[in-house]
Every structure is written in structure tokens, then in C-alpha cells.
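Repro case for the chain-ordering regression, as requested:
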Amino acid sequence: MATTIAAVGLSKRYRGPTRETPWIDAVSDVSFEMEAGEAVGLIGRNGAGKSTLLRILSRVTRPSAGYADVYGRVGALLEVGTGFHPELTGRENTFLSGAILGLSKRDVADRFDEIVAFSEIESLIDMPVKRYSSGMFARLGFAVAAHLRPAILIVDEVLAVGDLPFQAKCLSLMHRLTSDGTTVLFVSHNLLAVADLCTRGLVMANGRLEFDGGVENAIARYRAAIANTAPGSDGAASRAMSVHLDGETRDAPTVEWSNGPLRVETEVDHKPGNGELEVVLNLLIESADGRPVIHLRSDLSGTRLVLRPGINRFLISIDDMALAPGRYSLWLRLVGLDPLAPLILDSIRTELRIAGDHRLDSLVVPRHRFEQRDEMAGANVEVGAGR
Amino acid sequence: MLDARGSSVHREHHRISTSPPPLRTQIRELLRARDLFVLIFGREVRVRYKQTALGLIWVVLQPLVPALIFAAVFGAFARLPSEGSPYLLFALAGLVVYGLFSNAVARSGTSFLRDGNLVTKVYFPRAVLPLAAGTAAIVDFLVGSLVLLVLMVALGQGFAVAIVTAPAIAIAVLSLGLAVGLAVSALTAHYRDFAIAVPFVLQVLLYGSPVLYSSELVPASLQGIYALNPMVGLIESFRSALLGTAPPSSADLAMAAASGVVLVGVCLVVYARASRDLSDVI
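-- result from build under test --
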């Protein structure tokens, strides 16, 4: 496979706002290589330097140090609808946006029907885009960029605006592009999409490239980094919270789990000097893209928990999790009861993997069963029970 | 799915580094962006009159109304001399050609500000934006010239053979306007002061050029400095070509050419320097 991007020591330094911070290093000493047909996810918190790195690679801005060799045409979509003018029609904007992104008029004309079909706005193509909904605007914007047919496609968090079916369509198009040899560099906070599209992940933090490797490991690294910077995690009042799932201590970051009952046990070591403290234990289960699915609070369940000096053991039992197969994060968060100053005493996170078939679109799957009734015979001929 | 340019048969190589690409590469990229130029030019023209009820009538009214006002104030009331032509034609010819310059400067000068979002989101040869936006001034110029020609016929003004030189003069005026506009556009990205100062300066320059009055009225002691303004020679040449008024002296013309060339050169250097980190300053 041929190298398409070879970045060596890329850095970008901006002038700082005050004399105390004379400069800001948005990107520091980032080096990596990418090959044709590779889909790479770039993840990191807001302000980690992802967008600046993309801006350098798409030639919008120059690096302050380092260099990158780029082989093949770069198509960058740092914002949907780049170059759209509200007064112009969808048709006019398609040509304009195509030209801005580097296509000739003929290229756009050749792909026009394809672009319009992909965007699903055939009937409104001759209407000024200021009358488009934001979703329609985003669809046309992405459609133009996706049909540039570049050797390297750089996409920065632009899927978030479309609805779910359109997001799925964009992802499948990017899949197809990579299998045709296009290199895709993809930035998203939607970790599910990153995991789905990419085979490799780059994790950035504070302008530096912290991790470069398999996408699963990259996502795990990123999550671990977030958990460590959660507010109050350095609260010194209590320490060493550990989780036991169904009696077994889980040290590994990932826990395989079959659906059904869940028991989470936690141990909290409370320093003797701190006295008794009334606390609230939170259990949070989030989907892979960060949406909360389950949130349980000890106080709302009518349970009074008191942290006493020494080892404290708390237990949370769920009879039926009713979760669809997939990856989730399980958080335990111990918070002081005082509502005015909800002190987070500790917070830990474990990845939870629900085994099973992934072909479900929902997060919740209640216990259920399907039947086919045969009225003539008066009996069930087909019974299938499941989660 | 890869096209010929992206395929591995012929792979475009590009190095991203701390220094901007060499001038040759930049010019080559600019020339390759012709389609973009045409589309932005079209957008500038279309957007201006979209959703207007009068549409093209505005293009006609814009030079005509000021010309009528000036004809009333300076021609009829103040009785300014107009070198043998009706003052209305004299003023309109001046306004049309000066308008080409000032519109080109104003439109290209603000182009990075208006499309800042483009500059910070996508790479393309930056100069296309001010050049195409400034060139859009040619549409107003052509309509204004048409109005002028119609009025010339209506008022019984004769046509001189020299009229064939008018397009060349217009191209020189546009080039001057684009060069100044380029410099202004890049400077405006750094300092918004230019966005405020330039319309003001263009207004002052209207009276510093022989648009509404004949340069014969300028005192002899000031003629030397006056001719340093390249628009003096250009406006007089244009008016002479159309209306047959006195052409500028060859000394004045040489002065206009020299100062024009210097101005263009200075503006291009300013642009080259000030446009280096556009996306970081807008």
C-alpha cells in the first residue's frame, strides 16, 4: 500500500491572548503516516488540537514547525456547506462549492445527478438554500464533498447535523471510498461511528498525539483519559473504590456481560479523620456514543447511605438490564449528599460489553416474545422468545 | 472510484511546510482556478440583485441618479466648465470610469471579510476571491457605459474615432482597482480599520480626481502633485475617447503610467506579505 500522508513533527503555535501566555501550542510535534485505503479516526476532547491538525493537512493554515508530504488530491470538509451562499440556489451552490473544494465545472456537471441523488433534495435543487432546513443544507454540503473523489478525504465532525438514516448513508459511502483506495481521516465525537468506520485511531490531548494504534484501543485510551480528568476525581476524602461485578473483581477495563441481572459491588476506603458523611451512590450506564441509558441514584431509590471511617461496601442490584447487545460504559460515582456542594468523592468507569447479535437499532430490549397465532387450529404454531 | 488525478498512476505530491509555496506554484494554482473565478464572479453579480423588485433598473439608476444630481448642482447652479460637452455627459463619463475603479477596490477590498468563513475552512488560491469580487465591478461599468452612450445619442453628441481606445483604458482602470483591492483585502483581514477607511478615502479621491470638474480648474502650482494620482490621466483619457474633450498632455500621461505601475507593484508586494497567514488572522 502506498503512503498518502507522511507528517513529521507538525506543530502550530498561535499568539496568546495575554503577556502571561505569550503563545498557545495548538498542535505540538505530531508525526504519523497514513496509507491508501486506510480509515483513521482522530479523537480527543474539545481543544485537543484535532481541528488545527486537519486545518494544517488541508492547507488552510501553515504549520509553525514540521512538515507533511501529501500524495494525491486532498478533499477536506471542515464544515458542511463550505462556500454555500444563502441567496443562491442548491444548483448554483453545488457548482460553487464544488469549485471551491477543487473541482472543475465539468467535474461537477459530470457528478451533478449523483450529488443531487445522494442529498435527496431533487425537488428543491432550484430553491435558494436559505430556505433549506439545516438538515437539507447539511445533506447537500456533504454530498458535494463526498463526490469530490479525492485521494485523501478529511472529514471534521460534520455528520452530527444529519438525521440517523443520513448519517448511516454517509458512513457507508465512506466505507466504500476506503475500499476503493481513498484514505479517510475522520474526526468525530461519535465514537460508535469512529469504531464502525475506522481501523486505526489517533488520540490527541493538549496538542500532542498521545496514541496511535488500533481503533478499539484508541477509544479505550480516550475514555480512560476522560475518566481521569472527570471533575473531583482527585477528591482526597476517600480512595480506592473498586467494582465487583457479581462477586468477581474486575480489574480489566472491559467486562463481558450477558444480559440479565447485574450486581455491582463497590468498596470505598474512607479515611478515619473524615468522620461520617451521608452520600449518594450513582450508577450510570452510557451507550458507546455517550448517551445515558440507565441512571440510578441511591437517594431517589429511598436508600440512605452513610460513609463511615474504614472500608465501606455498597451493593447495587439490577434484576434485568434489558440492554441491546453492544458496548456501554458503566460509571459509579459517589457524591456527598449536601445539594449545595455536591462533592464528588470518587468516580470510576468500566467498559461493559453486552454479548449478542448487534443488528438492533435500539438501546433497550425488554424481555419479550414473538408468536404466530393460527386461529384455525387455535394453537400457537411458532413461538420465539427473546430479549 | 479514484479519478485520474487521484490514482496511483499519477500521484500529485505536495509538501506542507512552514514556508508558503513558491510564487510560481501559487500563480499556477491561480490560473488553474479559472472555473472558481467565473463562479465567484457570477455569484457577486447575481447575489447583489437577487430578490430585488427592480433588478437591472438599479444598475442603471446607480450611475444615472448621481450624475443628474451633480449635473444640477455643479452644471446648472455652479456652472462648472465641462470642456465643450454637456455637463451631464461630462460628469457621467467621469462617474462611470471612476466607479469602475472605486467599485473594484471596494468589492475586492472587503471580499476576505465577507467570505472569511471560506478562508478559514477550505484551501483554494486565495487571490481568486478579491480578484473575482473586484472584477464584478465591470458589470456596473458596462451598464453605466451603455447609459452614457444612449444619452450621447439622445443629446446629439458626436462619436470620435478614439472611442475604440476606451476598452483598453477601462482594462487599465480595472487592473489598477484590482491591485489596490488586493492589497486592501489582505490588510483588512489584519486591521478592520481599512474596511472603514477605504470607502472614506475613495470618496475623498472622487474629489481629488477630475470626475466632476475639469482638471483645467486645478491651479498650475498644484498640477505636478495632482498628476501623481494615476486616475487623473486615466479619467481624462477615457472622457477624451468618448466625448472628444481635451486629452491629457503626454507628460501627464507618462506621469499617470509611471505612478500607476509603481502603485500596482507596491500593492502586489503588500498583498503577498499580508496574505501569508490569512486564515489565522481573519
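Ordering looks correct now. Strands of chain B lie at 13-16.
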